[in-house]
Design goal:
The protein is built from nine helices and two strands; from the N terminus they run H-H-H-H-H-H-H-E-H-H-E. GO terms for molecular function: DNA-3-methyladenine glycosylase activity; metal ion binding.
Length: about 180
């Protein structure tokens, strides 16, 4: 089975992510929040690091429930900073709390986060057609700018482009990959 070249030789956890999640359109708000949460923690680190800690994050952060996370207090932050199973960055933990509240505000304004997110691409998956890859696009720039305007943190255009890829708004599987939609 031919995969994207960037995943060749990677551990099984990475192969599973590539094969079953990356580039698959997501419309479920809970899953979209989880993916945004993880992408924000990934900033400056490898995605493999985040994947390896994903289940620990799930346990430490109430199954990625933004309604609970938005209410975390300093005692909870200190508890999280002592958890070796997660990425222990005070600024990223505080951003996760802030972003949970902003995520809920977007849900309330638009009826769902999914409607908000997919509105940026008019509900269409953007498919890689030429194996020319980038780390940002006009779409990631626009979404990043809007999320920042709404008060979210760790949502720069590079992070948001990775989020769009992970959530399937953008399908950047290489042309020869079995997950490319033309296969």
């Amino acid at each position: 089975m031919k995969r994207c070249t960037w995943v060749e030789g990677q551990p099984e956890i990475y192969l599973n992510y590539h094969d079953n999640e990356w580039g698959v359109p997501v419309y479920d708000d809970h899953k979209l929040y989880e993916m945004l949460f993880l992408e924000c923690f990934q900033a400056g680190l490898s995605w493999l690091t985040v994947l390896k800690k994903r289940e620990n994050f799930r346990s430490a952060f109430d199954q990625f429930d933004p309604t609970k996370i938005q209410h975390y207090n300093e005692t909870k932050v200190e508890e999280l900073l002592q958890d070796p199973g997660i990425i222990r960055s005070r600024s990223k933990i505080n951003a996760a709390i802030n972003n949970a509240a902003k995520f809920i505000e977007i849900q309330q304004e638009h009826g769902s986060f999914s409607k908000y997110l997919w509105g940026f691409s008019d509900g269409t998956v953007i498919v890689n057609k030429d194996d020319q890859f980038t780390t940002t696009t006009d779409l990631s720039d626009a979404l990043s700018k809007d999320l920042k305007k709404r008060g979210m943190k760790y949502v720069g255009s590079v992070t948001i482009y990775a989020y769009l890829q992970g959530g399937g708004v953008v399908n950047d599987h290489e042309l020869g990959c079995f997950r490319h939609p033309d296969k």
